[in-house]
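Record format v2
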Amino acid sequence: DVKVTQSSRYLVKRTGEKVFLECVQDMDHENMFWYRQDPGLGLRLIYFSYDVKMKEKGDIPEGYSVSREKKERFSLILESASTNQTSMYLCASQGRNTGELFFGEGSRLTVL
Amino acid sequence: DAKTTQPNSMESNEEEPVHLPCNHSTISGTDYIHWYRQLPSQGPEYVIHGLTSNVNNRMASLAIAEDRKSSTLILHRATLRDAAVYYCILRYGGSQGNLIFGKGTKLSVKP
C-alpha cells in the first residue's frame, strides 16, 4: 500500500520556537507538497518541490521554509513559530506521470 | 483551472445510493474531472477521475454529462465510513502539480 507518512499527528509549541514537520513517501514520487488547512479557508499551498534540492513557493510561503535533501523526504520548517501558524498541515506526493495526489494523515500544530 | 460549484452539504441514509453533484460550466475540452474526499481528521484521498465517459472503480462511479458542464459522483451504497467532505476539482489534462481544493460538499450519513 502506498504511503505518505507525517512525523507527528499532534504538536504543541511555544511562540518563537523552531518547528520541523517531516514528511516521507515510499512511492518514489518526484513531486511533493505542503499545505495548511484552516476552517473556512480550505487547503492552501505553502511550498512544493519537483525534485531533490528544488523548491518553489506556493500561495502562502511567508514564515515557512522547506528542505528536500532526499527524494523521499520533504520537511517544512517554521523558523519562529507564531500563534497564527496554528493549523492542520498536510503533506502530499505526486508521481510525474499521474496527477493523483497522495496525502499524509496531517499534523495538527498548536502554537501557544 | 476552471471553477466548480458544489452544494455545501448533503445527507444520506446508510445503505442508500448517494449522488453528489458538481457544476463546471466553464470546463475546457482538456480538463479532467477529479474527485477527492476527506474523512474527519485525515488528509484528502483520491476517489476517481474522468474526461468524457462515465467511469467506475471500487470506490464510486463518475457520471459525466454529455456537454461536460456537470458531473455526479455516485456512491452506490453509502456507509457510515463514507461521511466526509467530497471535493470536485478540474485539472488540465496531462498536467502535474497543485490541485485547487474548493470547499466541497460535506456528506452526512445517517444510520
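The interface with chain A takes residues 32, 34, 36, 41-46, 49, 91, 95-99, 101-103 of chain B (CB under 8 Å).
The first strand of chain B starts at residue 9 and ends at 13.
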